[in-house]
Design brief:
This protein is an alpha+beta fold. It has one domain. Helix content is about 20%, strand content about 25%. Strands 1, 2, 3, 4, 5 and 6 form a 6-stranded antiparallel β-sheet that branches. The N and C termini lie far apart (about 50 Å).
Length: about 210
């Protein structure tokens, strides 16, 4: 039978950005086949740096529900003897380590937001919730974050970025937060990728600016 697309509406491009503000997100882990559990992906410029790629889907917002923002969080440095990977130059190592520290702090804030934990809560129960069996455990967590716009570069259009995570100690934390829904099913892990395959990937921005 004929398929009538006359009333399908206009497509949304990268220019159709979310207005800056605080949104409630669900984290979707995009497994990149790198890292010990296969849930990470390598940076293109510095392949020894491993990132957690998150597709952040807006929830609990009638106007923007389902819209997505991508975040790439540096969380580890590959210190293996993999001969396919060049070591990080000494003059770049400190910067890479700094980005990983910021990235892990961001991931910690995401857990505090998802589980509604005060950052200074060092109880046994809180510490247990901050321990991950794998990076795939982040899949399905719901959290609050401030979204901003980032100018386009290198031929790419402007995009949204997750500026920072909103935790319960901050004044912007919703007075009546929506209880997080935690999914226990982790995403499927992609087959292990070689460093060469990782370097073939093209991201619309410099991952090194993230975190």
């Amino acid at each position: 039978m004929p398929i009538n697309l006359n009333n399908a509406g206009s497509q949304r491009g990268n220019f159709d950005l979310l207005p800056p503000g605080i949104y409630h997100f669900e984290a979707i882990v995009i497994a990149g086949g790198a890292g010990t559990d296969g849930f990470l992906r390598r940076e293109k410029k510095t392949p020894r740096v491993l990132m957690l790629e998150l597709e952040c889907k807006v929830v609990d917002n009638e106007e923007y529900a389902g819209r997505r923002v991508w975040d790439y969080i540096p969380v580890e440095i590959d210190e293996s003897t993999n001969g396919d990977l060049a070591p990080i130059p000494a003059d770049a190592l400190s910067k890479a380590q700094s980005r990983v520290r910021r990235g892990r702090a961001k991931l910690l804030a995401l857990l505090d937001s998802a589980f509604e934990l005060q950052p200074n809560d060092d109880s046994v129960a809180a510490q247990k919730k901050r321990e991950l069996d794998s990076y795939g455990a982040v899949h399905g967590l719901q959290f609050y974050a401030q979204v901003e716009e980032q100018a386009g570069s290198s031929g790419y259009e402007p995009r949204n970025r997750v500026d920072f995570i909103i935790t319960p100690d901050l004044p912007d934390w919703p007075k009546q937060p929506t209880k997080a829904v935690v999914k226990t099913t982790a995403p499927a892990v992609s087959p292990k990728r070689t460093a060469a395959e990782d370097l073939d990937d093209d991201l619309p921005f410099d991952e090194g600016d993230e975190g």
